[in-house]
Specification:
single chain, ten-stranded mixed β-sheet, three-stranded antiparallel β-sheet
Length: 598
């Protein structure tokens, strides 16, 4: 199809059904070579309508990585494993057979291929005539029969072929599950504008609910894993393409330990962009698990493959416990039931129509830090606000947790996300940070773009007016009075007010030379702001009080083209401070040193 696109760009490309595709080749003879035709068949995912596939989480495996996976089976099972006749292979999400395309032809008679759609099953029978191919809904079909704890009073009407049922009960056969299961999470994604709500409502989902499998049951691929681990004999190897979340995501850790604690054999990972139609930058893994043995390792080694399938390094993935995650580092303060503040979706926007208001605060409230999730893919949501955040991952900052809260913020913001670390978890440090590291982090956070603190006056919410102070204003009133302030109203406010929390905190600390440099250039920016208040239209950023927040000051100066050089100098100083902080994040154990390149 790419050739057509290149030479005939004016053609209006259309998706076609598998039935129409097969009908075309039944009437026209363009190629006759069997291998060539099979190669065309494996690319059916590019030709067929993908809206339903996208909803069901089906993404077809790129052939080079499917071939690499077969090579890894050979590493684990030995040379010519497929010739012994002692192995059976089952792919219960076979689709159009991409995974099996590079299997040796002599293994086809030992191959079972099942797929959700009858049209795909018919297609598989043509491509793999010696295999057992059948339509089968693995998350629903035969589940009531297989997992019934009582003797059935009737003969089940099995959808699974009798030959497969018999061989599953043969103790002499070793099973290989070779699968790229569907990836969809109920109520947590969108597909072409359609919510995936309800996509995980299967019979296996209900069964996992009985076993108290937790949030993991919302994932289709973990449902496959759940049935595989309980249906297949102990002498089974599971080779599966998947994200890494089933190993380390906080919501999946209990599932991993209780329902999928098996021995890891070998595997590799590669960039998600190699899958057609997949957005985002994250690793896809192919890992082989020995279901006959329990897992004992706390760290597993996974080969890192580039886009050409060549291994370029090793990822050492630590299998963490739930109490290891950074969001568990310190207790989150309990908010008052009757003390509320307007909830914010960003520095200055009140979210009045939010279903879950999340407006609870407390009298000693200083700020709110959103720490959604616990991995790199969620770092973009990490922000500091001067009122409660509408995000479910936010917590209240008070005097007692201020220092650790700011460290948490910086630890999640300073390291840069890559496709390889996208699912890495931030961890509770193995050593408590010292004073210099703590103070460096606080200064960096005060002048970072994710500091969205603001001062807001007369904010309407639920029929009341609220005054939101900026407790993160970094300079004391005595010093500000010595500055040039071109706004008489603000001068009067300053004369009647008191220092904010952060300004008072800074006055009692010692700082590194890098942090001092940031504070020095930060002061110049604040002075420039106050000096030019008469030139700034402050209404857009809702500035009505002297203690404007960093997001308000920074944005106003940029919009009025003031202090460009000073802001750039400050940014450079803060980048230097971040470079000092970054290696210490690993040294303290907030992140694993898990990637080693050849």
């Amino acid at each position: 199809m790419r050739i057509i696109d290149s030479f005939y760009p004016q053609i209006d490309m259309k998706k076609i059904r598998i039935e129409d595709y097969d009908y075309f080749w039944s009437n026209y003879e363009y190629v006759s070579d069997t291998e060539t035709i099979s190669g065309i068949h494996t690319k059916l995912d590019r030709l067929t309508d993908d809206s339903q596939r996208r909803f069901e989480g089906e993404f077809y495996t790129p052939l080079p990585f499917a071939q690499k996976a077969i090579h890894y089976f050979t590493k684990v099972l030995g040379k010519n494993w497929h010739k012994s006749g002692k192995f059976r292979i089952w792919d219960m999400a076979a689709g159009t057979g991409n995974l099996e395309y590079h299997l040796p032809a002599e293994s086809y008679k030992y191959l079972y291929l099942s797929t959700l759609h009858a049209g795909e099953a018919d297609h598989l029978k043509k491509v793999f005539p010696d295999a057992t191919c059948f339509q089968y809904d693995y998350l629903n079909d035969d589940v009531d029969y297989l997992f019934s704890k009582e003797e059935l009073p009737f003969e089940p009407e099995w959808k699974m072929p009798q030959k497969l049922r018999e061989e599953l009960n043969d103790p002499e056969i070793t099973w290989i599950v070779f699968i790229n299961p569907p990836f969809a999470t109920s109520q947590n994604a969108r597909a072409g504008g359609r919510s995936k709500k309800g996509v995980s409502k299967t019979k296996i989902d209900r069964l996992m609910n009985k076993y108290c499998a937790g949030h993991a049951k919302r994932e289709l691929f973990t449902q496959f894993m759940f049935r595989i681990a309980r249906e297949l004999p102990k002498n089974t190897y599971l080779g599966m393409f998947a994200k890494l979340k089933y190993l380390n995501a906080p919501n999946n850790i209990n599932y991993r330990d209780e329902f999928f604690n098996y021995k890891y054999e070998k595997g590799f990972l590669f960039h998600s962009k190699n899958f057609h139609g997949v957005t985002g930058n994250f690793p896809i893994s192919f890992l082989i698990w020995n279901l006959s043995k329990k897992g004992k390792k706390k760290t597993i080694e996974i080969d890192i493959a580039n886009d050409e399938t060549k291994n370029i390094g090793i990822k050492h993935l630590q299998l963490i416990n739930k109490d290891n995650i950074l969001n568990q580092w310190f207790p989150r303060p309990e908010n008052s039931k009757d003390y509320i503040l307007p909830p914010l979706s960003n520095g200055i926007t009140v979210k009045k129509e939010n279903i879950d208001t999340r407006h609870r605060a407390r009298p000693d409230f200083l700020a709110s830090i959103c720490s959604k999730g616990n991995d790199f893919q969620n770092t973009k949501y990490v922000t500091i606000l001067s009122s409660p955040s509408v995000s479910a991952g936010a917590f209240t900052v008070i005097k007692e947790n201020f220092e650790k809260s700011m460290i948490l913020h910086d630890v999640r913001k300073i390291p840069k996300p890559t496709w390889l670390n996208d699912r890495n978890q931030f961890l509770v440090p193995h050593t408590e940070p010292d004073e210099e590291f703590t103070n460096d982090c606080i200064v960096w956070g005060l002048f970072s773009n994710s500091n969205q603190t603001a001062a807001l006056k007369d904010i309407s919410y639920l029929g009341r007016k609220y005054q939101i102070k900026n407790h993160f204003f970094p300079f004391r009133i005595a010093e500000i009075k010595t500055w040039k302030i071109n706004d008489s109203n603000f001068r009067q406010q300053i004369n009647r007010d008191v220092d904010r929390f952060v300004a008072d905190w800074i006055s009692h600390q010692k700082f590194s030379k890098e942090a001092k440099n940031v504070l020095k250039h930060g002061k110049k920016v604040y002075q420039l702001y106050f000096e030019n208040l008469n030139k700034i239209i402050t209404k857009k950023m809702l500035v009505n009080t002297w203690d404007a927040g960093w997001c308000q000051i920074r944005q106003l100066l940029k919009e009025h083209h003031l202090g460009t050089d000073e802001l750039e100098t400050l940014n450079t100083a803060n980048k230097t401070l971040a470079e000092k902080i970054l290696p210490q994040i690993e040294n303290y154990g907030f992140l694993d040193k898990d990637e080693v390149y050849e």
